[in-house]
Fold these 2 entries.
Entry 1:
Amino acid sequence: MSIAEILETMEYGPAPESDKEARDWIRSLGAETKLFIGGAWRKAKSGASFETTAPATGEVLAKIAHGGAADVDAAVKAAAKAGPAWKALSGHQRARYLYALARLIQRHSRLFAVVETLDNGKPIRESRDIDIPLVARHFYHHAGWAQLMDSELADREPIGVCGQIIPWNFPLLMLAWKVAPAIALGNTVVLKPAEYTSLTALLFAEMCQKAGLPDGVVNIVTGDGATGEAIVRHPEIDKIAFTGSTEVGRIIREATAGSGKSLTLELGGKSPFIVFEDADLDAAVEGVVDAIWFNQGQVCCAGSRLLVQEGIHDRFVAKLLARMEKLRVGNPLDKAIDMGAIVHPVQLQRIRELVDLGIEEGATLHQPAARLPEKGCFYPPTLLTGAHPASTVARVEIFGPVAVATTFRTPAEAVELANNTEYGLAASVWSETLSLALDIAPKLKCGVVWVNGTNMFDAGVGFGGYKESGFGREGGREGLAAYSRPKRMAKAVPLRPEPQPALTGDAIGSAAVDRTAKLYIGGKQARPDGGYSRPVLTPAGAVVGEVGEGNRKDIRNAVEAARKAAGWSGASEHNRAQILYYIAENLDARASEFAERLSAMTGKRKQDSAREVAASVSRLFSYGAWADKFEGAVHRPPIRGVALAMNEPVGILGIACPESPSLLGFVSTFAPAIATGNRVVVIPSARYALAATDFYQVFETSDLPDGVVNIVTGDRDALAAELAKHEEVDGVWYFGPAEAAGRVEKASAGNLKQVWAETVERDWFNPAAGEGREFLARATQVKNIWIPYGE
Amino acid sequence: MTDRGLRVVAEGRVQGPEPSNPGIPFAADPIEGLRVNLAAAERRTSALAGRRTVKKDWQAAWLVRALQCIDLTTLSGDDTAGRVRRLCAKAMHPLRADLQAALGLADRRITTGAVCVYHRFVATAVDALQGSGIPVAAVSTGFPAGLSPLATRLEEIRASVADGAEEIDIVITREHALTGNWRALYDEIRACKEACGPAHMKTILGTGDLQTLRNVGRASWVAMMAGSDFIKTSTGKESVNATLPVTLIMIRAIRDYREMTGHVVGYKPAGGISTAKDALAYLALIKEELGNDWLQPNLFRFGASSLLADIERQLDHHVTGRYASFSHHAMA
């Protein structure tokens, strides 16, 4: 085209980024890539390999070694071997390595970007301007946490060998999110990149060599789902971190149940993008571009559900359609391309099928007129209007450049629609009215909310989901918990089942009127559904009293009562504190009665029981104190704005209390949960259940709203598994032997509730171990609300 | 009211629509209902720098177009008739003939969009540009503060038009915008429009003085409702002149105004645009937000004085592959 002709059309023309260096590097990998294990490059033991292709052209880029179980085992051994020395380094020494990695990534940033774009198909603009800078930022930020670990995390230590499995949508960025915090805190890792996108992980391994990272600290095993499974099932791995689909996340949850592995999952989403009538509509339209047409919509937190206030819907859609016409789809190595290629034909097929289904179910299809490249794996930016909340495309994660739009009438309805999903990863709220946006953000059940923005990320701001979008955070101080544990865990003693005395049939002689301990549900004492009771015995086997034998229907009723007590989560911290103090006051007033009861059940001396009651009163005071002091943080990401890290209650927590000490264990678990705004269903110690049932009258005299604490007595481990299965329950705490903990973890996979299963002994009497931040953190999840500002 | 329709330019080529804006009665809704988010506007403009680029022949063509959209300007206290004649000569031959030929444009008349001067030099410029088809623009309302009595300003406009100015750049009373006195601003601009008669009116908002994008958006609407043919950012004398976020808000207002009324308004960023790279960024933003119709001098102008020199040097580099010396290009 001549310059004179271009002056007529004013087209952009081609602007290709050179891929010469990237291809030279790929060639340097040889006929077949190798695995990075123990600081050395090794062939896959089986000799098997698979091809990785450039989705934009379909050409084969490289043959990737297919790591198998034997390779994973070798990598785990290397990581385990490297662990002690790596952990023993000072924080400063580890910080130097992370700093070196950050610098190396910056020095080779263009090579990383071009390789990523070749292998993944994302536009070079995104890999160059977004992915790679965030990768470097992540290593810088975590170099800082390594430096500060000794002082800021003095009571925590690394978990050990971390198995990390990452997806193909942000190959290097997800690697950074996994590797940087893990090695910063002294863990060693075995990482498996996604099958479609292994290359930048191999380039990263070269950087680890250049940085002089000790052998075995980072191991990269390329492979497919079977390789991932070998990691998940490897007995010497202490922690699994997975980013990917909810479907696979569920399988991993089940597979790791009972293994003692710690687990964090960052899964799918169907994130709402809410546009209020007072939004800057043009800004919101650009927001949609960044939300769903970023990375071809292959983003777990993509704003894929547009919820638009009815009065502006038509105008907004008209603006959006005009904007879609301007999007350029094509060669991802072109510098003026908005959307590149879909990662793989399999994914493309899934997108096509879902869009077809959406149309079949009544949605209207909108796509721009421009034609797609004839070759390669491309799909146009797509909008489906009139997709009602019940339609498939409005519910399932498409993981492609497809937005669905529907309307709402009021802010309350927007919140309801936004939360009407099994997912809870992210949300965008568009409004120029601060009071509206800041009212809506906390009501959205998800881990990240962007006000007048979308898809903003920073290493200093935690990212992660609520509900079936997973658990655990990546980034910021809140992300450190996923790669560290309390120091006392190293020498902890496994819990064993509490010995049960044989029933002798004797009753303790008493002149008192017979007392019937029922269940405590919705603020009322309720008979157990089954109509059975079980005895509580002295160590000699005499009957102290009887408690209800709860069953799954009682659990159902208790959860229902907890659900209705939602007001507690919105109560002021001051109010919650007052009630905890009041509970303490009323327990204290009955201290000798409780002590006597404890001694009757345990056979312990009266003064020991009195000490347990006193400790329980003190513990209630502690959480009364904490209720208005467990505050969030104000992050300062590199934007003009803030991100508010809010500690929000998990929701409905099921708690299976430690068997012993029965009263202190009961108080130490329900109190932090309700102090932070959760509603709880508590299964008290089975052996010493009367300590909890005696508490009904304490609750009843303490102004605790009905349904905030519900108590179901009976077979503790069986009831805990029922709680774990119940999909209205958001989290379960289980303190008991490993075997039953495994059953609880397995049962939790249904709605991927977070489980805190502690299978080791804890000194509940020692405040350093028995109360405080560890409990409060488990009772909450961090939501980050991004608020860019400026006038 | 002027609606001269399509202008047929020297080479006989139709260059697309011209501004045609009779204005509409004052309405408060577009002003009060305007929502502008600064952070989002900044994100849009900064991301666009990475999203759009032109290379090789496309870059050369775009630079030629940028050059054609320049209002070649001199607005200094030491301006003289001689200086203005020199400027006019440059406007008629902005590109060295050998470069123009090397670009394959030897048969085209490549000129700047207009020459922009104080009222005092309108007649000089009209005379110097005789037969070139290049319009003379005058800054005619007590430029740059615009605070002389309205009657004086209107008289100045009429005098400039009488001297042959086809385009009048007026400055608004920023006080009206800063105090939210939109009705007064509307009336003032309306009066200027009448004084302009057949000449195109470009309304300078003084965006650096208005400071907030919300103010910029509102003032843009008032200026268009009052009949401006172009809206323009700055006098070039404020401490902050044209910026991409300000441009984004102004051109979105142009788009929405056209959607609402059907009237077409042009856009002129002025001040601070001095490099070829800057110019390309503006053109890309215009193309994305307004479309190709605005990528020609009828609807888009750069108010600039030093931009031309950089464009010439870049085109020289395109042709020769060498970075050019300033002394190889004729000064204005």
Entry 2:
Amino acid sequence: MSAQPRDTGLDGAALDAALASVWSARPGLLGWFTTVDHKAIGRRYIATAFLFLALGGVLALLMRWQLAQPEGRLLGPDRFNQIFTMHGATMMFLFAVPVMEAVGVYLVPLMVGTRNIAFPRLNAFSYWVYLFGGALLWIAFLLDMGPDVGWFAYVPLSGPQYAPGKRADIWAQMITFTEIAALAVAVEIVVTVFKQRAPGMSLDRMPLFVWAMLVTSFVVILAMPAVVLASTALILDRLVGTQFFNPAAGGDVLLWQHLFWFFGHPEVYIIFIPAVGMVSTILSTFCRRPIFGYTAMVLALVSIGLLAFGLWVHHMFTTGLPRLGESFFTASSMAIAVPSGLQIFCWLATLWGARPRMAVPMLYVLAFLFTFVLGGMTGVMVASVPLDTQLHDSYFVVAHFHYVLIGGAVFPLLGAIHYWFPKLSGRMMSERLGRWAWGLVFGGFNLVFFPMHILGLWGMPRRVYTYQPELPWAGLNLFSSLSAALLALGFLLFFWNAWRSARKGEMAGPDPWGAPTLEWATASPPPPWNFSRIPVVESVSPLWDAPGELKVATGLRLDRRELVLTSVMAAEPEARDSSPQDSIWPFLAAIVTSVMLIWSIFSPWAVVWGSIPVVAALILWFWPRGTPEDES
Amino acid sequence: MKARIVADLSELPISGPRGSSPTWWGNLAFMLIEGTGFALAVAVYLYLATVVATWPPAPPPELAAGSGVALVLLLSLIPNFLLSRWAKAQDLRRVRLGLLVMIGVNVLPLALRVLEFGAFHVRWDESAYGSIVWVLLGLHTTHLLADLVETMVLAVLMFTRHADNPRRYGDVEDEVAYWYFIVATWMPVYACLYWVPRL
């Protein structure tokens, strides 16, 4: 045992060279397919999610073009159905949830001061499954097989009787792909947060973004099985003739809505909770003070996570459910405004008298506060059953949820990208381009979506592919469509800024913002091993405790990928565990899993025969290789 | 940034107690996912029972096969418990024996399960009742099958050069915990499928 090389006594270049020899990915294409570095996977995940954002955005522009004037002729009804379904499905399943988890994949290990995410091979597998699921949906769309049943795929419209062909199955199986990927990441984040925090980082010293990702991961774990069960039942109804949703054989169509929204409502919080973690992080850094009411913020996050499961029926107020049930869900829908409001007051108290530095990330936080409060207000409005009955399925609802989702999640995300871009790429994003993009996105967004409130109040229903000239909707629709060009220009500028800055941006250095959390204690971008020595934490803002100095631990091995396990509550060191080496098997396992899932759209026997290669791949993935990582 | 060394971790063990291992926690998280799946499937069963006038629309299931599975699973807790003790003691010979026994224990409920599908007198495509019965049985059967493969792979592994390693004994303990989970999930599913129709 004494022959094992340790980091004790080594310093600087010698230490980094030793760490590089065990942690670096193989060079070339093979390295690209085999790496299990959470930063490489996280970057890929983020880039892919933004690609899907752009694709979903193009679909939105096509819809705006079609609706710009009455009796538009750009899209027919069938294509329009596919496009609004693809827009919703892409934005929710391929962009919003994955991008939030992806930011977590990249940042959580860095923020808790460890060297890789827990189960890094599962992490690689998750990315490939997500990519193949997204490709399935989009290739099907390009082949005119895109789902046309809405992102929620209500039965009976999506059932065997009204949706012949394979379009609805493509939707349902895309769900399986993305849920496998999301659940895998949720488990990794929970275990990383529980077991791999830096020594001393007790739960009450955890950064708020890490808290947010922890709560989100639990919401994912408890919510996503509902949609997996629902989509599996739908596929079974369509493929082998089960009768779950057929009222003639004892089934029930509302069962679908219950299962879907038991997942679908928490889904909103799966997107929103990470975003508030980002807001708290950015606000604290740019106000140069710890966030006001840390404990209250944590409790608010946890209670939002819990209340998220008590709201689903408010999507079903017009389905004729019992009055008492509706009243309960009205009350719970209003109750969630309490922890949300609490957070907003904590942010305002943090801002109070702080003279915040108005860089682009901070501008997005302000845009978030303004827009999200508006979206929250209309949320309280539609939580009321009588008003919801009037506004249901109208453009008012379209306006409401875009205010909540874009204001509540995309603005913080764009701020977060600007904020953490140095950590992702080593370079700063251009402040000038960033301000222009911010103005166009924020202004454009409000000009596009605010009129939709009025259109909804004037009776314009959702999901119509066109409308007659006699109706009073043409003016506001044209205004909204023209404004969409501004919004699109803003996003184009953002993408251009990111692309250009990644190549020519100003070099950032480890901590360009003077931020307090651990990810800024290492180089930008961090080396494959994240930290040359594992940090030791004594407060919630470790980098503000003693500027220029980082407390660290020593004594780790250098002949294998090693990290520190700590206790769940107090983060006391428990063991020096290994972290798995790179492997091609996650990639190969994702390929055979994808073959099985796509095949099973066409034949139930795919599950039998297709699972054989999956099992083989998993065995080869887990079979020990006798490396130092396997020692214990 | 200047690093100031404040702790020496070289004396830490290279694998902690079970509760400190990431795989133990990962196992628990996957049980939470699958447990939620089971709970929702039972909820679907109960929901469907409320939307039709007579439940079940077929004769109540015959009790023998399902109760047999419940009995076998309950008895399997004994060898499973012994296996966990042997794994904790890192007794390779007994662990090998225990895994082989557990393979046998695993095959038995699978054999009975074949009879169970017949005991309900309903096909999956006849009614929503048939659909949820087959899905609940199928969900649990998938767990039994997955666990059988896992136990077999572990058993083979314990006869190779990789066997005598605390990490492997940890794997065996995780497998033991997973079997507890499979037994625990069957009890509410069994109660739901066989006894709710008799209420």
